Amino acid sequence: MNLETIREKLSFQKQPGGIDLPHYKNTKDMQTVSFEDPDYVILPMSQHIGVSCTPLVKVGDRVLVGQKIGESQSKMSAPIHASVSGTVKEITHITLPSGFVSDAVVIENDRADDSLHPSVKPPVIDSYEQFVDAINESGLVGLGGAGFPTHVKFRYEDLDRIEDLVINAAECEPYLTGDYRQIMENAEGVLNGIRLVMEKLSAKRCFIAIEEHARASADHIQKFILEGENITVSLLNDRYPKGAEKITIYETTGKVVTQGTLPADHGVLVLNVTTVANIWDYMTTGVPLIRRRITVDGDGIREPKNLFVRIGTPIKDVAEFCGGMKLNCKKILYGGPMTGMPAASSEMPTLKNTGALLFFSQKALPDPSPCIGCDRCATVCPVNLLPRRLERAYDRRNKEDLMKNHLFYCINCGSCTFVCPAHRQLAFKNQLAKALAKE
Amino acid sequence: MMSKLLAVSSGPHIHSGRTVRSIMGDVLIALVPVVVASVLLFGLRALILYVICVGVCVACEWVTQKLFHKPISVSDLSAAVTGVILACNLPVNIPLWMAAIGCIVAIFFTKQLFGGIGSNIANPAIVGRIVLMISFPSAMSNFVLPNFAPDGMASATVLPQIITGTEEAVMPGMLQMFFGIRTGCVGETCIFAILLGFAYLVYKRVIHLETPIAFVATYLLFSLMVGNPFANGRIFYELMGGGLLFGAVFMVTDYPTTPGTRLGRVIFGFGCGLITFLIRFYGSLPEGVSFGILLMNMLTPLINRLVLDKPFGWAKPEKKEGKA
To answer: What is the predicted ipTM?
Structure first.
């Protein structure tokens, strides 16, 4: 009877935790407007998880909208397309929010707009192989923020296993309303995309995960679901983080994706609602991923709104279109306030996986003080971890302890840091710990 | 032009707003009914006791942190909370210099020497009380009748009488027990005030419920197995006598000295209940709560090592079969 056995006998699983976040869905009812006229765009060669692309063009080349300008030989990648027509002004280096340095193609907009590249036409998708290749060609990545190359999901080796399609419209981050507007403005497109994907995968059921506060969109899309279609709208409660893949799968299908397995191993494929709408768009028009909807909000911007932008539009142009940044604006975030990453300057571009640009006048958060052992972090952790113990193990650089406390189950939701009364940077340390443990 | 410097930091970028100070502040608010009740019952001397205890605790922390060149953290109110709780555990007529010693033991020895807030291995107020009980046993058991007590009420503490079953002096009735009209330490007697504090702490989500419930339930379970549980309303006297409920609400819920998991806290509460029962019924001391809690504090690190919740999606770390 050793320690591990005792531990196993004494442990049990409690219900997933989570936190009650304020929603701030201020732009919920704002119809999406268009800002598709930037002076220039900056297109990094890495806007996805996986291998960076290499540029296919050089300085001085004339490019058209939808022209492929970056590609990689690796399967774990997605091509980059020109989002405006014009001339390649320069090929520069850019530091992405994650810290990764990548090449970037800068295109000066000649405003001969809608001059589409001849390659832009609806693809032939008779066979499954053609379907997946088409998704690859479209440059689609997980538009919920993850940026995982979508075609790779469809290349799962044992396709017969997949029976459930989960559409993630949870949008659990505060301020973000892009997915909500997608449903309200394009419910038909979303459903057509779902139907197409279900047909190609021979999936039996589909669940659309929507949170309580977005009930109006649930009611709206319900109207378009046909009699007899096995598409269910699952209303989830508002506790953050309902949009984290494992949690979403559990709350809709009841399946638990165990550590070390993929959702597909359990017969589930998850797609963000905007991604699936874009699949339909691409299959019908042939226009690759060159524009997307983003939410602009925060107390540092004058006119919050939802808008369509061309991928690569500099943040400062977006800000100007939205009334301009207020003088007290200090922080710009890609994505939501829980998992979003700051932009180092307003010269940075909007990326494929940018769901929102948030402008904040934030005061600095207080310095961390000693841990009081209150265990609020443990109470809210959605995957039942004990963040304060992980932090202690990391501070002592104790890899064994980190693994004993199940470090790699952490989904980086940030709930622990949110509640910590001592303002300790628990989520951040988890990230650092993961890097340490991999060494 | 537009080149302003932007703040870059790691997420999350919003915070719940809960701070250590707001939590301690809530505990102090929860203690207000107890403080008010003790002044009504035991007079102005009780108030002086509270003031001295809080003052000495805060001053001790300030001086210690200055001496150790540590940042001064008295504004987080934790020393003040220790002061109030320690005072609640003392009889009203205790000499003030003794109370001060208790405060110094609590703050300097039990808390700051171990590394300050969050690093102490035992509940500071408990250690303070125990040291006083052992060093000054007669002063610590010098109880008086509170205001509103009828003439002829027993002036020794209620507990030994429950155990021995004597009925010579008039025992306090149920209602008197509930409102604290009995002998005892200043903060322990008024059950009504303690329950108000408990309700507030639950409402503000300050305490974990597992520990108090496990503690009280375990104690009742064992104590009612001895003798007839319903004779003379014994069950209520067991519940309301001594420092049981005060300990259950304010002392067994101290953060750093209790386990981090739900099951761990249940085990902790169970242990406290059992030890309290054993000391009260089979030991020669009238009061077992403090020792029960202290002993379980010592076991907390072991409980933390043994009890670890399964993470969501837990898979037994077997040999994987070739899949990446």
So the answer is: 0.85
